[in-house]
UniProtKB/TrEMBL annotation, chains A, B:
Positions of the UniProt region annotated as Disordered: 1-24
Modification sites for N6-(pyridoxal phosphate)lysine: K204
One example GO MF annotation: L-serine-pyruvate transaminase activity
Keywords on record: Aminotransferase, Pyridoxal phosphate, Transferase
Name of this chain's protein: Alanine--glyoxylate aminotransferase family protein
GO biological process, one term: glycine biosynthetic process, by transamination of glyoxylate
Pfam families the UniProt entry points to: Aminotran_5 (PF00266)
Positions that bind substrate: R351
Polar residues bias: start-end ranges: 1-15
Length: 398, 398
């Protein structure tokens, strides 16, 4: 229904409270909510410029990089992906994109939109790529850019990227990494691993609302950017201009999303107050508790244990559980959101996220209790007893 | 300074309160601030999907259109400009861009990035285009798209677009309008004026934070979109996909910036509660009060009176007033932000905005009092007496 006349107005916002334990967004940290109520500064106010610099400096710490070109793109995570690719790829450039899930496919599609000649290295969903396999593909394709997903949000699989920078250098390729689901949850060591370009989002490991895409470009990516033969096809994502805005020149480009920057700054402060190592350890700890519970309930995950992300588990649904009805019950009876499956796993997995602020004991217990109730009501035989009890036992013993 | 080690952390957010009377962002309405503290829903939660629909329906009312494809782009106003152009222009298409200020230039540059053959119709900054002149240009260029700015943020000039749709139809061109500074302040009657595509922002007339770009596409624009020979170059801004996400299919595209949508929904509720006509009248009223005060201070504006926007005045600086020092005093002594000039008017004008929530008596008095103090201290002879008194007299008599 559409109408040009004034509609009867919707009422005051009053959504039912949820616990967001899906693949993101994750719940906001209360301090992030408070930060967003801070009165606006103008986007060229000297005090705001200082906040921008502070935000960049903390982003560098979280990305573990000294890259000068480190900033939040004024768009969601997918905008960060587009910003990476559209700045590095020109029409006719070869791109090697590693696909083992939904977001690898997205990267391949975006690279095509950039006019690149895209070679897809395909793996089954939930699997990962070995250094040998990638070396072979690099040798065959000789791409300008190798794109890969560090934490595949559709499968919960962790792709090791620690070897990637060195490997890409052997073939003079740029390593571009999707860190949307990893940043703030699992290590992202841009400089140590010699990653040339990476992007992330605000609404998962950083416990902020969706709307910003942290991005970092290293020296080789920067060189490729300035060696382009054609202007960057996107004005909005053009990093040569964004660099002048976020750099010392402060040349106006677009109006920064001020409230979102406030949120990100607070989210980053929280990450660094906790400390990266402590934060990664916390994610591992609560993931182990969750897994103890899932095992007790007889549930398995899509990804193999060796590459299972701590912040996101894609749990295979047992026979007898209806995806849509089950998630509806979780949402309506328990106020818990988990994610459904994507692509070929639609209807076959539930994606449970314990990210950032939500990687904590209460969330583990709540989701296990609710899962157990729903499964038992569906007639699933939870062979090894209570999930909550198993998680409790884990916490007690660790 | 960059460092890969943990930096000493910046402190809690604590900016000095400002009154934002520049070209935007403008201050948030308090109800918008409250709306942003609402706990997150997931972006695929049925309750959030309903909020999306409500937001679209209110956006239609504010754009005065029945266009189904009416939605907020997940980017700032410039992202909305890019979304309009990248969806409508293919490489080699002719675009006629009308330039009489900074944002007309931006539109021309973006159209070039889309691969279009761009013809610029140039006018002096602060002037506007007549129907005859545009007819002549359309006849000469025969473009696919005519791009024009309804409210030029760099000059404060109002461009009449009421005739544009009919005129463009004579030449089978699409009328694309930048409504960034007009929506919520001055009339934007998309359907009556037969505008084919338009975009705006969240941080001016709608009193929300920057970060969203309301956009609307009419039937002819939609037809052009689906007749494209090549895929839209941008994945992020591809309206064929965004239409499926925001339409009844709800096909996941990217994670909507939930908190920003909460803010926009509340900003739109405020607009429609007030009523469009009452809101436009309010903007006119406080603009007249401001102008009475500016005249008393002997100040002139860049735009001619016949095309002066009520929501934004570019005031020419009198001799003896240093731009940067003067704005610094306004900011630091009075807590008031006004905008500096852009392009050839850098250092020569101050841009004073009375937009949305900030179009009110208090703001008029505050900015006139501060201006008067700064001008007198610079030795400017304010010939006709007090600006505040003149505004008071206007309010008393109207």
């Amino acid at each position: 229904m559409t109408s040009a006349s004034t509609p009867s107005l919707p009422g005051q916002l009053n959504p039912t409270p949820r616990l967001l334990l899906g693949p993101g967004p994750s719940d906001l940290h209360p301090r992030v909510v408070a930060a967003m109520t801070t009165p606006l500064l103008g986007h060229l106010d000297p005090q705001f410029l200082l906040l921008m610099s502070e935000t960049q400096e903390m982003l560098r710490a979280v990305f573990q990089t000294r890259n000068e070109l480190t900033l939040p793109i004024s768009a969601t995570g997918s905008g960060g992906m587009e910003a990476c690719l559209v700045n590095l790829l020109e029409p006719g450039d070869r791109a090697l994109i590693c696909v083992a899930g939904y977001f690898g496919e997205r990267m391949a599609e975006m690279a095509r939109r950039c006019g690149a000649e895209v070679h897809v290295e395909q793996e089954s969903w939930g699997k990962t790529f070995s250094p040998d396999r990638l070396r072979e593909a690099l040798r065959r394709v000789r791409p300008k850019v190798l794109g890969i997903v560090n934490a595949e949000t559709s499968t919960g699989a962790w792709q090791d990227i620690s070897f990637l920078g060195a490997l890409c250098r052997e073939f003079d390729a740029l390593a571009v990494v999707d860190c949307v689901t990893s940043l703030g949850c699992t290590p992202v060591a841009i400089d140590t691993w010699q990653i040339d370009a990476a992007f992330s989002c605000s609404q998962k490991g950083l416990s902020c609302p969706p709307g910003l895409a942290p991005l970092t470009f290293g020296p080789r990516a920067l060189e490729a950017l300035y060696r382009r033969k054609s202007p960057v096809r996107s004005w909005y994502f053009d990093l040569t201009a964004l660099r002048s805005y976020w750099g010392t020149e402060r040349v106006y480009h677009h109006t920064a999303p001020i409230t979102m920057i406030y949120a990100l700054r607070e989210g980053l402060r929280l990450v660094l107050e906790e400390g990266l190592e402590a934060r990664f350890e916390r994610h591992q700890r609560h993931a182990r508790a969750l897994r103890a519970g899932l095992e007790a309930l007889g549930l398995r995950t899509l990804a193999e244990e060796s590459c299972q992300l701590p912040q996101l588990h894609a749990v295979l649904l047992p026979d007898g559980v209806n995806d849509v009805q089950g998630r509806k019950r979780l949402l309506e009876e328990f106020g818990i959101e988990v994610g459904g499956g994507l692509g070929e796993y639609k209807g076959r997995v539930w994606r449970i996220g314990l990210m950032g602020y939500n990687s904590r004991t209460n969330c583990v217990f709540q989701v296990l209790a609710a899962l157990e109730k729903v499964l038992i009501d569906c007639g699933v035989h939870c062979s090894r007893g209570s999930g909550v009890a198993a998680a409790e036992a884990f916490y007690a013993s660790s």
